[in-house]
Design a protein that fits this description.
Radius of gyration: 20 Å
Largest sheet: 5 strands, parallel
Number of helices: 14
Number of strands: 8
Helix content: 55-70%
Order of helices and strands: EHHEEHHHHHHEHEHEHEHHEH
Shape: globular
Structural class: alpha/beta
């Protein structure tokens, strides 16, 4: 979806573009103060491109299991600024998005390989892959075709990053970091970006893509030398995870435990109370936080 920055859209058109009904849009405005559209002299609502992006962000948070009353706090955090003049990155980002939604893996590979061969892994993640994934996740608001696009993108990205993690692991012999997905959805591009960054930074990475009871993770630490445990969640955790599984895990492990992904924002206070370190949602920021903490340990 693309509209001109100066274009104002009526509520019926915004509802069509975003899949959010006009009734819901009015409720978000009146009850929660989430959207503030312009008004005509007769009181009709008109929405800007920024308003539409805000609506897509709200839909994304709700899709992660966040209550609508909590969304405003999550949206108030500082957002990364995307400079339109940071060539070649801005052009590559748009080209990569276009290639992926066209299901063109060869074109996507060309952009990915060009960035990875010409720049550092951290630069490529921070300025190409991370913002591309963020743009695509904002695009996926439950419309027809979103599931197919997400499956294609996550399969493509996982294949490229998993091979890098494997190659790096072959050269690393220090204690491993275990990263575990605690969301039922195994498609977690942010988790693989973070894993690849940690792997490139000299950490041996073990990953579990599929959700398992958190309390069972102590079995791995009993049988394998681990330096730390990184939990990853893209959706709100269940009451079972928060009240039983994670407390049980923390009672039985002596490892440093971090929590990454959007759920680290959703449950920031609860995680800290359990002794789990929530790290920033963005993979590149999470990487810097974890590495700094491990170095000082």
């Amino acid at each position: 979806m693309s509209i001109a920055a100066a274009e104002l859209l009526p509520i019926r058109e915004v509802a069509r573009l975003t899949g959010v009904t006009a009734v819901t849009l009015r409720a978000w405005e009146r009850r929660y103060g989430l959207i503030q559209p312009h008004r005509t002299p007769k009181g009709h609502r008109l929405y800007t491109a920024d308003n539409v992006e805000q609506i897509q962000t709200i839909v994304a948070w709700l899709g992660r299991g966040v209550a609508v009353g909590q969304v405003r706090e999550l949206m108030s955090r500082p957002a990364a600024q995307d400079s339109a003049g940071d060539s070649p990155w801005s052009e590559w980002r748009q080209s990569l998005v276009n290639a992926l939604i066209a299901f063109d893996s060869q074109r996507a590979d060309l952009i990915y390989n060009t960035a990875m061969s010409g720049y550092s892994v951290q630069q490529s993640c921070e300025r190409l892959l991370e913002p591309t994934i963020a743009a695509l996740e904002q695009r996926w608001t439950g419309q027809f075709g979103d599931e197919l696009e997400k499956a294609f993108v996550c399969t493509w990205l996982r294949g490229r990053l998993a091979s890098r993690v494997y190659q790096n692991n072959c050269q690393q012999h220090r204690h491993a970091l275990l990263m575990v997905n605690l969301s039922n959805d195994s498609r977690q591009p942010g988790m693989w970006l973070l894993a690849m960054l940690l792997s490139h930074g000299g950490r041996h990475m073990e990953l579990l893509d599929w959700c398992v009871p958190a309390a069972e993770l102590t079995l791995i630490s009993e049988r394998r030398d681990l330096q730390a445990l990184i939990l990853y969640g893209s959706h709100a955790l269940t009451s079972e995870q928060l009240r039983r599984e994670l407390p049980s895990l923390m009672q039985q492990t002596n490892l440093a435990v971090y929590f990454a992904g959007p759920a680290s924002l959703i449950h920031h206070r609860e995680l800290e109370a359990l002794g789990i370190e929530p790290v920033p949602e963005a993979p590149c920021s999470a990487y810097a936080c974890i590495v700094k903490d491990l170095r000082s340990a």
